[in-house]
Design brief:
Number of domains: 2
Low-confidence stretches: none
Strand content: under 5%
Helix content: 55-70%
Strand order of the largest sheet: 1-3-2
Number of helices: 17
Number of strands: 3
Shape: elongated
Radius of gyration: 35 Å
Structural class: mainly alpha
Distance between the termini: 26 Å
């Protein structure tokens, strides 16, 4: 729901009033699916329900802090808080591209840049065990001997060798040691930081795995999208093809392609126009309408002309100057 709500409010409406209205409707629809005892337990938590709410709160805080830490370390437009927050709720995030980008960024940063990003995160969050651990890493990055090589230096003394074979083995061992990557204290700090973040990701509890997930979390995004941002053309087609769903009357209960004399004039005219080609002869259209309606009075003609005008306003047909007694069809397909 968070993903759809963010996209809809920021890119379609950008209204705080609409956001509050959506949240009220979302809560109302969610509570309607719960029984009275569950609702009372949620508003007056005690015992098992209280423990469940506490676990969900701790998980949300952990998710938020870890997302902010990863975004602060990566610090690019590629990784944003929303995407990171949602990706952390999936399995195997430590093997995802998002985490690999953070890991790669940490390895390329110098000590000053890494300390600055950790400091900005600590100043923004100010509390939490991730912030406390970040302070420890900042203190380690302040060490003056970060570039000191701490790799194990092999013994280069050849004096104690007894045979020619031992000499060649010793030389091969020294060559392998020389090819090893130089290890500094900064490299150790970076590896410890990556190891700490990986452990935090693996120990993170997903909300889906906690008890009372269905009762606590609101997950009716599809229902809200149909209410606040419906596919208009499909909705108009359904209303005209099956008007009984909106009028709640038995006389209009027909299949989408079925014609019936009791249908509203605009619905009947719409279904007839679906059978026409690009250019619609208005007189033939009227004759078909009257044959289905079984009425040739002036009232039926007036109802037909009003239905055609309404279809023109909606955008299904338009007048044309090529043939004065024709209309041009503007849409194709039924949805």
């Amino acid at each position: 729901m968070f993903d759809w709500l963010d996209d809809f409010v920021l890119f379609h409406d950008f209204s705080l009033t609409t956001l509050l209205h959506i949240l009220r409707v979302a809560v109302t629809l969610h509570l309607r699916k719960l029984d009275g005892s569950t609702i009372e337990a949620l508003f007056h938590p005690d015992g098992e329900v209280g423990d469940a709410l506490f676990q969900h709160h701790e998980t949300d805080v952990h998710l938020e802090q870890l997302s902010k830490a990863l975004v602060a370390l990566e610090e690019s437009k590629a990784l944003k808080f929303k995407g990171c927050y949602l990706a952390l709720q999936k399995e195997n995030f430590s093997e995802s591209n998002e985490f690999k980008k953070v890991e790669q960024t940490i390895k390329f940063l110098c000590s000053d840049d890494l300390a600055a990003r950790l400091t900005s995160y600590v100043n923004y969050v100010k509390e939490g065990h991730i912030a406390e651990k970040s302070v420890e890493f900042i203190d380690r990055l302040m060490d003056e001997d970060l570039q000191e090589n701490i790799a194990n230096n092999e013994n280069t003394d050849f004096s104690g060798l007894k045979s020619r074979t031992d000499f060649f083995l010793k030389r091969e061992q020294l060559l392998q040691t020389a090819q090893k990557k130089r290890t500094t204290k900064l490299d150790v700090v970076k590896e410890d930081l990556i190891r700490f973040l990986r452990a935090e990701v693996k120990t993170l509890k997903r909300p889906q795995s906690l008890i009372m997930y269905e009762e606590i979390y609101i997950r009716n995004a599809k229902e809200l999208e149909n209410l606040f941002n419906p596919p208009l053309r499909m909705r108009v087609h359904l209303a005209l093809a099956t008007p009984s769903k909106y009028l709640n009357c038995k006389c209009c209960q027909v299949k989408p392609t079925e014609l019936k004399s009791s249908l509203p004039p605009i619905s009947m005219a719409y279904k007839l126009h679906l059978e026409c080609s690009k250019m619609i002869n208005v007189y033939d259209w009227l004759q078909s309408y009257q044959s289905v309606r079984e009425d040739t009075s002036k009232l039926s003609i007036a109802q037909f002309l009003r239905a055609v005008r309404e279809l023109t306003v909606v955008g299904y047909v338009k007048p044309t100057t090529r043939k004065t007694d024709h209309c041009q069809r503007l849409t194709w397909g039924s949805c």
